[in-house]
Design brief:
By secondary structure, this protein is α+β, with helices and mostly antiparallel strands. It is built from two helices and nine strands; from the N terminus they run H-E-E-E-E-E-E-E-E-E-H. It starts with a helix and ends with a helix.
Length: 178
């Protein structure tokens, strides 16, 4: 009886490891906003495992600049880890919305079918986003806000209004007194 239990535990561990080790494909999206600005997104699931100290940050390895693999000019690349109920989750899709020069990216997971090891999971991925203008990228994972990534040169506010220097703001303040 003891040998059967040990064999059953080993088989379950192997099945769970097989399910956890499966990697998803790459999802690529391109879009054009109502204001004519264009963007591209590439998300690749890089793995899934039980949550550990290796996943202490939900986003890491953020880098800006250069062209992405799709020829985008203003690219940001980052690695993410999404905490899930089990490691048997897939990246179900992404949702991108744009408001002025702020893009909101939501990376959504769903549970895979079949047996799975029971632990808090971590689905890891690599993403590259690019747009044809400076931008802020608000990253959400399963609807939860994780971090804002500001592409260098991004300035919040209305880009059609020129930024005033200190002297111009001082003159405006003095004129406001009278």
């Amino acid at each position: 009886m003891k040998k059967i239990s040990v064999v059953a535990v080993i088989l379950l561990a192997l099945m769970a490891t097989t399910v956890v080790a499966q990697e998803g494909g790459t999802a690529t999206q391109e879009g054009e906003s109502s204001d004519g600005s264009e963007w591209t997104l590439n998300v690749t699931k890089t793995g899934a495992s039980c949550w550990s100290g290796n996943h202490s940050e939900q986003l890491s390895g953020v880098s800006y600049g250069g062209e992405d693999s799709m020829g985008g000019e203003r690219a940001v690349t980052f690695t993410g880890a999404i905490e899930t109920g089990t490691p048997c989750h897939e990246i179900a899709g992404t949702d991108i919305e744009k408001d002025d020069d702020v893009y909101t990216l939501d990376i959504v997971t769903n549970q895979s079918e079949g047996m799975c090891v029971q632990c808090v999971g971590a689905v890891t991925y690599e993403a590259t986003f690019s747009a044809d203008q400076a931008y802020r990228l608000k990253v959400l994972q399963d609807g939860e806000h994780v971090q804002d990534l500001d592409y260098p040169g991004y300035e919040p506010g209305d880009p059609s209004e020129p930024q005033k220097n200190v002297l111009e703001r001082l003159i405006d303040w003095v004129q406001g007194l009278f």
